[in-house]
Amino acid sequence: MISCTLAEVVAEMEAMYDPAWAEPWDAVGLVCGDPDQPVRKVLFAVDPVAAVVDEALDWGADLVVTHHPLYLRGTTSVAGTTFKGRVVHRLIRGGVALHTAHTNADVADPGVSDALARAVGLTSELRPLQPSADDPRRGLGRVGTLPAPVPLREFAVRAAAGLPRTAGPPRVAGDLERMVRTVAVCGGSGDSLLGTARAAGADVFLTADLRHHPASEHMEAADGPALIDAAHWATEWPWLADAARRLTSAMENKGITVEARVSDTVTDAWTATTTDLDPRAFEGWG
Q1: Where does a divalent metal cation bind (predicted)?
Q2: pLDDT band with cut points at 50, 70 and 90 for residue 285
Q3: pTM (predicted TM-score)
Q4: Does residue 74 register a pLDDT over 70?
Q5: Are residues 202 and 160 in contact, defined by beta-carbon separation less than 8 angstroms?
Q6: Which of 143, 177, 212, 249 is 20 to 30 A from 16, comparing alpha carbons?
Q7: Burial readout 228-250 (b: 16 or more C-beta within 10 A, e: otherwise)
């Protein structure tokens, strides 16, 4: 088996998810790690948090690839007195590198929203919801069609089944009997694309982090798509398997074997609902 270095793996990741595609405010690329260190095991996860570091160290990973950056804004310290500093210290002590592919993976072809679209049942050719100015094949979100129209209630149930479970299930806005065929999706926070989903002629828009006022105003318009609001982590998690598969395939083409693993540790910020804690929580409401 031919061994490879961290620098070689990072080069392959950046060939798939070019850092130049990232938003100006984003922080992508190698966070820590020696470019000359050997890489045999790569763990893919959404968030660079303590539970993921635990998993990486337990498994003996040489590299963790996360979607979300550890440091999105500038910092002057990686002291172990903060949780981010502790992540850096533990990774370095364990010989584990950290690499991030964030908004560059969001707009890639294929990227985060392609994986989300497939997870919720879109089988037709996908197109970007908001194409990139420099390459219309890339861009934010995806639009596709279902094999056959189904009521919103059925699509919502199918979509929820295709996503990993989190404490709170997806929320739905719209007529549950409305027929759905054209679907728009966006992994992560997508309420900036509400108008774009309407213009695309979508029957339903599935994304995460929908805020009250934009969603309320959107639903007041008669011609807009229904909405499905899922957990942020859940809408981005399907991409991990795609990224892992593409990396291992690219390395195999060079005669290099790299073992990849997708973390199923749920790192969504919300860990329970009040009905989980006590089914009587909503008695008397309404």
Answers
A1: 67-68, 106, 232, 236
A2: low
A3: 0.95
A4: yes
A5: no
A6: 143
A7: bbbbbbbbbbbbbebbbebbbeb
In the chain, the number of structural domains is 2
Task: Give the length of the chain.
Answer: 286
Binding site, by residue number, is 67-68, 106, 232, 236
Q: Residue 168: which CATH number? A: 3.40.1390.30
Does residue 135 contact residue 178 with C-beta atoms inside 8 Å?
A: no
Domain assignment present for residue 123? The answer is yes
Has residue 152 been placed in a domain? yes
Domain-embedded: residue 192: yes
Residues 95 and 193 reside in one and the same domain? no
Domain region containing 203 = 107-230
Measured between alpha carbons, how far is 52 from 30 in angstroms, rounded to an integer? 17
* DSSP code at position 205: E
Residues at the annotated binding site for a divalent metal cation? 67-68, 106, 232, 236
